[in-house]
Amino acid sequence: MKDYFTRLLEYDLYANQKILKTIREANNPEKPVQLLAHLLAAQQRWLSRCKYETVAENELWPEKETTPFEELIASNYQQWINFLSAIAPADMEQTVTYKNSAGTEYTDKLVDILTHLINHGTHHRAQIGQQLKLTGVESLPVLDYIFYVRN
Length: 151
What we know:
By secondary structure, the protein is mainly alpha-helical. It has helices at about 1-25, 30-50, 70-85, 110-135, 145-150; strands spanning about 95-100, 105-110. A two-stranded antiparallel sheet has the order 1-2. Strand 1 and strand 2 (about 105-110) form a beta hairpin. The protein is globular and about 45 Å long. The two termini are about 20 Å apart. The relative contact order is 0.20.
């Protein structure tokens, strides 16, 4: 299962880099930048929760790019890969107890958190694509997972 999520994280890296390239080519329109900033901030927050570290003090919905996205995308990917590499396969079924931003406590399996993490990224990249279309971008990158694995 670790290998499966490693592959999904590699796809997530690829998709984030591709959508960022399109954002850059469109001169960094505000809404796509905000959505990507949120996606990356959420990845950091989930990792902190899974590692039982103090949750990153980053804003969950940053208004702008505060750290270059290229750096955040690479750093988030590497930190998640390092985390997965350091745990035992059985740990994928372990539970993680954390508090959300409203202070409500939850307990979820690591495997479910990772599934959410990947789906969350896909969801927001689709929103970014819609917003880019509204700014006049005519051609979006193909980010479907199946196209990624075929290459």
